Structure formats: structure tokens, C-alpha cells
Amino acid sequence: MNDRNCRICSFPSTLFYRDVRTFFKCPNCALIFTKDIPEKTLEENHYKEQWQSTEPDFWEKQVTNLISYFQNFGISPNNHRILDFGAGSGELTLELQRHDYRVTALEPMTDGYLKDQSYPFLFDAVVAIEVIEHLPNVWEELEEIGKILKPGGVMVISTGLTNSFIDSPDAVEQFKGWWYKDDPTHISFFCNQTLSIMAEKRNYTIEIFGDKLFVVKLT
Question: What would you report as the CA-atom Rg of the chain, rounded to the nearest whole angstrom?
């Protein structure tokens, strides 16, 4: 695929911003993306540094928010199985388990990729906290997630959405100052328009909650 082709809808995209990396914006779904991906060892070292620097109360806040979304979608402690996709250091898994949720952790750096797993059951929900912006093959990963979800299962996904500036006349300037794009492992930046196109392409139902989280429900 051409470096300018959108990784969500394949539209030829235009140059949006360049610093140490080159970013394109899709004219169809408004995804901002780069094909400049760190070398594997540098990427893994970056992740490990982040795991060590994350404060414990960060995961407590994440779980408090997640529980409210679980309740909206009928996901309850003890009764439902959850996959923590891209589990990192495992802190989110542990915090959810402290609240009596049945959670399985999957961290590709230590456990291998989802496509290589063989779980003896299907999951009711998959949680991906700050993961999707890292994925070079978004559709492939979502398809693999779909295979391990029960019918009617949900994906709870958090990432920094670009809604606050994507349609602004000074969108490039706002993106330039956006700390989220400076993480060298963040390669895709989504907005509501992107999610709408994704829902159309895969017949998903997507509910968006603010500018940080959305829930994909399989139909």
C-alpha cells in the first residue's frame, strides 16, 4: 500500500504535517496517520519505560471509568469474561480483578499476538486502553478480536480523539502542539468521522463517549 493511502479506508491522503515524522490526513474519514514506525527494539524499550513511569492511581481511575461503561453494556463481575488487549505491565488487569472481574491479560511483547492464541472460551468484552493508536494493521487486529468475542460482545477502546480540532481552520497548528502525537509509537489518530466510516465498513455499532473512549458492538 502506498504510504499516502489511509490505513482505515485506503483513500489517497494529503500531507498534513511534518516534523521528525510525516503525517497525512485522509480526505474521506479524517484519520491522521503516519507510516513512520519505530524499529522494533526501540518500540519495545519505549513501552517498558512507559510501564515503569505510570502512576498506580492512573489505573484506579481507568477502572472506575471502565466499570461504568461495563454496567451500561451489561458486563458484570464474576459472570462475564474480559480480555485486556495490549495489557502492558498488567496493572489494568490486576485492578479489574480486584473488583472481581474475570480478566485475561494479553500483551504481545510477552504473550505473543492474538492470532496465535488458543483460548478455550469466548469473551464478553475486550478492553483496549491506549492501544489502537499504536496498531499498523488496525483492521487485522479488529478482525482477530471479533473471532474471540461472543455474539453481541463489545470492544471498549480508549484513545485520544482529534474531535476538538480536526475541523478547525488552525487544525495543523493545534496538531503541532498536541502532546499525544509526540509519542513515537502513536501512528494513527481517530475522530468521530473516522469511527463513522469504520462502522459503515464493518457493520459495527459504535457509541462514542467524549473525546477519549468509544465502544464497538458486534452485530
Answer: 17
How many whole angstroms separate alpha carbon 147 and alpha carbon 141?
10
DSSP per-residue codes, 61-99? HHHHHHHHHHHHTT--TTTSEEEEET-TTSHHHHHHHHT
- Helix (H), strand (E), coil (C) string for 176-196: HCCHHHHCCCCCEECCHHHHH
Flag whether pLDDT at 54 surpasses 80: no
Say what the pLDDT of residue 171 is.
98
Q: Is the pLDDT of residue 50 over 90?
A: no
pTM given for the model: 0.93
1 pLDDT higher than 80: no
Q: Which three cell numbers stand for residue 81?
A: 469474561
d(CA 27, CA 83): 34
Let me know how long the chain is: 219
The answer to whether the CB of 181 falls within 8 A of the CB of 168 is no
Residue by residue, DSSP assigns 3-32 as TTB-TTT--B-EEEEESSSEEEE-TTT--E
